[in-house]
Amino acid sequence: MSTIAPPKKPQINTALPGPLGQKIVEADAQFVTPSYPRPSFKLVADRAEGVWVTDVDGNVFLDCNAGVAVCSTGHCHPEVVSAIQEQTAKLIHMCGTDYYYRQMPDLARKLDEIVPIKAPTRTHFANSGTEAIETALKLAMHATGREKFIAFFNSFHGRTLGSLSLTSSRVAQRPVTLTIPTARSTTASIPFPLTASSRKLTLRVTSRARANALTLTVMRKRTRATSPFGKRLKRKRKRAGTRS
Fold this sequence. Notes:
The protein is α+β, with helices and mostly antiparallel strands. Helix content is 34%, strand content 11%.
């Protein structure tokens, strides 16, 4: 049996985006955050198979990105689809940071066999590339005790805070000033406000890199404790001999 795919080429039937695609783009602009860096070319995908992607208006495109480096076996490979369908019929999700299931060590064992790193290895599973970068940053800080990083110009590492601190592939990403060491030295943890009484909390947070101090004042307006919880708390304080 021949394994050669039948001849095929992209097919464009409408202006891009087409009428249905344009409506989806407009809805996206209205309801979805503009922080996603969509390109000027507005592809509104509907279905895909192999290297071919069809948009909602029936236009067919050759995908040279493999689903942005995710579908290396091609879109909707029959074996991948079958494995997904089989698994979702048994178990869709169980938080792997809290509980165990066999697929995690099975995959980690397979990676241990094939990665070009001397065994034994241990695998950290992440949801995205930027989460993997964040993990690498934390591991580097933990292993070295240092907080400074070197990143190349025009590099891209992700859009979460730590990864974004290393990213400079676009002009809008370069003036990021809240880097990891700064975030660590200026973030203060305070008790969650459980009472309705006024309270003034002053925290002095001193940067490890500088002698400057950040004074954070939290003011909460005095209100009457009229809720059932507030009344119980007031009675409890009264019995304890404290003044609310």
